[in-house]
Amino acid sequence: MDFEDSPEEAAFRTEVRAWLDANAKKRAGKREISAEDMENGAEGEMVASKAWQKTKAKAGYARITWPKGMGGIGGTPMQSIIFGQEESKYDVASGAPFAIGLGMCIPTLMAYGDEAAKKRFVWPAVQGDEIWCQLFSEPAGGSDVANLRTKAEKDGDTWTINGSKIWTTGAQFSDYGIILTRTDPGVPKHKGLTMFYIDMKDPGVDIRPIKQASGGAGFNEIFFTDVKVKDSQRLGEVGQGWTVALTTLMHERLAVGGGAGGGLDVPQLMQLARELELEDGPAIRNAAVREKIADWYVRSAGLRYTTFRTMTALSQGKQPGPEASIAKIVVATKLQDLSAFAMELEGEAGVLQGAAAPMHGLFQGGWLSAPGLRIAGGTDEILRNIIAERVLGLPGDIRVDKDVPFNKIPTGR
Amino acid sequence: MNFDFSDDQKMLKDQARKFLSEKCTTKTVRAVFEGDAHHDAALWKQVAEMGWTGTAIPEEFGGLGLGYLELCVIAEELGRALAPVPFSSTVYLFAEALLIAGTDEQKKRLLPKVASGEIVGTFARAEGPGAVLPKNIRATLKGGKLNGKKIAVIDGPIADYAVVLAQTSEGSGERGLQLALVDLKGAGVKRKTCETLDASRGHSDIVFENASAEPLGKIGEGWSDASRVLDRAAILLAFEQVGGADVCLAQAKDYALGRYAFGRPIASFQAIKHKLADMYVNNELARSNAYYGAWALSTGARELPLAAAAARVSATQAFDYASKENIQTHGGIGFTWAMDCHFYYKRAKETGLVLGPQRAWKDKLVTELETSNA
Lengths: 413, 374
What we know:
The complex is a heterodimer of chains A (413) and B (374). By secondary structure, chain A is α+β, with helices and mostly antiparallel strands. Chain A is built from 11 helices and 10 strands. Chain A is globular. Chain B is of the alpha+beta class and 374 residues long. Chain B contains 11 helices and 9 strands. The two termini of chain B are 28 Å apart. Chains A and B meet through helix 7, helix 8, helix 9 and helix 11 of A and helix 7, strand 9, helix 8, helix 9 and helix 11 of B.
C-alpha cells in the first residue's frame, strides 16, 4: 500500500509536467475561490476556456482515454487522473463548459451515431469549438426522467419536435444538444422514447435562462415549436431512447460526482474560525466548532481516500464502482451544512453577500448553490436508491405505471 | 498508486475469516456474554498458535515480523467476528507500548511472551469519569513503587501485565509523567471486576498500593508515549470497528430482504433502503480513512497522528450508526437477547470509548490540522 506512481505512471507524469510548463503558468500560492466560481457557466471564462481546451486537444490531453483521431491518446483512466492532478497546479481556465458535452453527449454520439456524425462532431467538441447540452428533464418529470412529453412525429425522412425541456445546464452557450423525445405515447413510458441530436440554433428552439435562487442562471427552460430533425440525427433505434439515455446518465453521474463543491471545504472553514471571535474567545478554540470541523474533515478525507481506492482499482483494470454516487451525496450535504455553520459563526454579518461578506461571501455562495447541487444530476434520494438497489441489491421501488401505456398514466399536476 | 492490500495480505484476511467463521461463531460470543469468563480461553490459545499475536512484533523479539498491514487485515476479521479475546489490549496497546517505549531488555523479556500468547497485557490511563489530562493523573511512580487507582482497565480481570500512566512528581503535569510496567500478579495490586456494557470484554478497576513497577520510557515522555500508543491502537481498532460495521449492514440487509410487512419485503421501503444506503456510505468512508491510517502506520508517516484521529472518529461513527440502525431495521425482535444485534451495539460503544471518546479525538484531529496548516 503506497501512493507512489508505478514507473509507467511516473514517466507519464513527467511528460505531462514538461508539457504544462511549456504551455501554462504555475499557480502562485493558494487559489482564491470567489462566490461566482461556485456558479456554473460564468460567461467571462468562456473565451479562456475555449483557448485552453484547444491547446490541450492538439496535444491529445483533452480526452486522454479516447482513441487517437478522436481527440485522445488512447490513455488509461489513471493517466487521465494524473493529468488532472498536474493541471490543477497551473493557472488555467476551467473545462466546465465542455463537461456535459464531452462527459455525456459525445460519448452517447460515439456509441449510437453514424460514422458521418462522429466525423463531423467529435473533434470540434473535443477542442472546444462546439458546446453541447443534454435535453432530458421536463417540468413534469423531475427524477422520473422517462415521464417526458416532448413529442417527435415522423413524416417521411423528417421528424417534427414539439414540447419543452427544463433544467438544461449551459443551453444558452450550446451549439448542439441531445434530446430525448416521445415517439409513441401508446406504449408504456420507457418503451416509446427516441433520442436525437439537434442544432440549438435551429428555428423553433427558444432558450430562456432560468434565474436561480442563487441569483445566477446556469439552467434554462427550452421550448420547441415545430423543430425539424432529419432521421439521420436519430441516436439508436426508434423506441430505444431509454436504453440510449441510460448510457448518457451513467456518464453523467461519473461527471457530476467528482469535483462538486467548488473547493469550499474544511480548510476554508478553519481559516474563518481563526479569524473570528466568539462569545468565549477565538472560534477555532471553541469546542463545538472543533467538533464540526472534525466531523466534516473525516467525511472529506474519507471521500479522498475512497477516490484513491477507485484509482487503484482503475489502475488494475477494474471498472469504477458506485463511488460517484457516494461522492455527490457526501459533498453536497457537507457543502450545505458547512456553509450554514460558517454563516452562523459570522453572526449578523452572515446575512451579507459577495464582497461585503466575510471571505468575500464564499460561504454564502456555497450555501446558495448547495440546494441545486443536492438535486442536479440525481437527487440525494435517487442516489440513495441507486446505492440501495445496485450496490446492496435491495428491491427496486414499486412502479405502478410500469406496464401502463403512457397516455393512460394519471398525471396529477 | 496502489491504495489496496496486496494479494498476500488479502489471502491472510481470507484465512482469518475462514478460521473465525469456524472457531468463533455467535455461540462463542454468546457463551462468554452469558458465562462468568471474560474471554474464550480456547479461542485465545488458537489465535496465538496461528501467530496472530506476534504479527507485527519483530522476529528478534519472537514475533512473525510481518507488519502492520497484516495486523490490520486480521483486526478487521476479529472485529467482524466480535472475537471475545484480549487481542486489542495485549497486541494493540501493551505490545505497542513496549515497542515504543521499552528498552531492548524489556522487549526481549516480554514481547516473545505476547507473541506466543503466554501473557495478556493491558494499558491503563483513566482515573475517573471525564477527560484524561496530564493534570488529572494522580497515580505515582516513585522508587520502583506504584500507588494510585485506574478505572475501567480493558481486559483487567485476566491481564498479567499492565502499562500504567503515572506521575513521578519530578516536574508537574506533563513534565513528570512516565509510563510504568507492572506485574498485576505481584503484591500491592487489587483488582475489582466491573460490570461492563460489553460482557465479551472484561474491565477492572485496579488499585496499586506500593506495587512493584519499573519505568517504561523516560520521565516527561509518559504523555507523548501514551499518545503514540493510542494512535497506533486507534488505527488497528478502526479496522475492528469497520469489520463490525460491515456485519451490521449485512445483518440489516438480510433481515430486510426476508421480512415482509404490508405485503412486501421491508427492504423495498425507501425509508429502509435509504437507511441502509447511509450505512454503506459511512462504512465506505470509514474503511477509506482506516486504509489511510494503515498506510501511515506501516510507513511511520509524519501524518500518523492525523490519520489515526480521522480513522478513529470515522470508524466510531460508522459502527455506532450501523449497530443502532441494524436494531431499528429488525424492529422489536432486534432488541431481544436472542438476536445478535445487541452484541454489535454494545461492542460499538465499547470500542468507541475504550481509547477515549470521539470528542477527545476530534479535538486532537483539529489540533493536528492546525499544526499541519501552520
